[in-house]
Design goal:
single chain; alpha/beta; TIM Barrel
């Protein structure tokens, strides 16, 4: 662990929450921002001077798999998220009602990364290597609500993923109705993963979501995609109109350039950019971080300027952390990420092995609570 930084200066900073871009000097006291100066003539002596790239608030990955035990998808959050610029991460269903106690004890509490949980509506979470929902007993409203009450300080909402339900006799909509009922009883939002097939119409699934709920894997390509016949489905536009949010959740197979390009061309930008980084990325040697996902979105037609807020202030607001995360203001946590773009173009790949050529943005440095994190 490095010595605490008392003052950091950046020639270029971006703070989407205050719509500020330019030079900045931040004073840090006890892990929080205690002073902010944007007039370069008033800058003092800084411990750390950033003269390349952009200084951003610490990135917030609102769909990933930080877990040190009990999840078939889990990876070490401090090793694979914190070092890649994400200082706060939302676990998408790594633990359910029957293993949340272990998740809190072995992952959330000892990690330097700030971790919130979207508790898996499947009571066994992702502990079964063969999948989830083998029986409706796993879809227990009572168990889920009791677990949320037991660990409310660590839980943001419910992960309700009905893709690949293992018991073919179970109707995914039945699981959805139960999950929505649990979310209503516990007064929490939902992070929803659709079936990714046409067997259950997407319109029927979206109709069950409420304002403030989020659909992840929003640029999934193929059956069940938000894009059909070359345009955004009406049910998707209606869902956004009534307050349903849309999250990227890139992953390994949940992002398609063809879907993203149509959506972006129609002005349908994601509300949240997330990585869905998990153990397969580590095993393949892929640095699945938020700047990489942003690079793909830029290649698909978004501007990089539209990406910054969707990795910082927007997920902070989604998770209810906007008072202390996702912004460069006095009183906020001294969590920062330095990002820069490589000089050479890269071949960016989607979940169907399709590629686009574009610039690659990368995390260069992470600062957590005023201390530099080593890569």
């Amino acid at each position: 662990m490095s010595s605490p930084i008392r003052r950091v200066r950046a020639l270029r900073a971006i703070d989407p929450a205050s719509e500020y871009e330019g030079p900045i000097e931040l004073t840090i006291t006890d892990g929080r921002i205690s002073g902010r100066e944007t007039d370069a003539s008033k800058f003092g002596a800084a411990d750390l001077i950033v003269d390349q790239g952009f200084l951003l608030p610490g990135l917030i990955d609102a769909h990933a798999h930080p877990s040190l035990s009990g999840s078939r998808y889990g990876v070490d959050p401090d090793q694979y998220f914190l070092t890649r610029g994400s200082t706060t991460v939302l676990s998408q269903g790594d633990a359910g009602a029957r293993n949340i106690d272990e998740f809190v004890d072995k992952t959330i509490e000892p990690s330097r990364t700030r971790i919130k949980l979207a508790i898996n509506f499947c009571a066994n979470g992702e502990s079964n290597p063969n999948g989830r929902f083998f029986d409706l007993d796993e879809a227990s409203i009572l168990e889920c609500v009791e677990a949320i009450e037991r660990h409310r300080e660590h839980i943001w909402g419910i992960s309700l993923n009905v893709a690949f339900v293992q018991n073919p006799s179970i109707d995914p909509l039945d699981i959805m109705r139960r999950g929505v009922e649990a979310a209503g009883q516990a007064n929490v939002p939902i992070l929803f993963g659709a079936t990714k097939t046409d067997a259950t119409p997407l319109a029927d699934q979206l109709a069950l979501l409420r304002p403030g709920d989020s659909m992840t894997y929003c640029f999934h390509s193929g059956e069940g995609s938000i894009v059909q016949a070359g345009r955004i489905q009406d049910c998707v536009l209606e869902a956004r109109e009534r307050g349903v949010l849309f999250d990227v959740g890139d992953g390994f197979a949940a992002f398609g350039f063809d879907t993203a390009e149509v959506a972006i061309a129609e002005g349908f930008l994601p509300d949240i950019i997330s990585s869905d980084a998990y153990v397969a990325h580590v095993e393949s040697g892929t640095n699945q971080d938020l700047p990489l996902v942003a690079s793909k979105l830029v290649a698909a037609g978004m501007s990089i300027e539209d990406c910054w807020s969707r990795m910082t202030s927007a997920p902070a607001k989604l998770l209810g952390l906007e008072d202390e995360n996702g912004q460069l203001r006095v009183g906020a946590a001294a969590d920062f990420c330095l990002v820069d773009v490589t000089n050479q173009t890269a071949q960016l790949r989607d979940g169907h092995n399709q590629t686009r050529t574009g610039q690659l943005w990368e995390p260069v440095l992470t600062i957590k609570a005023g201390e530099v994190v080593s890569q």
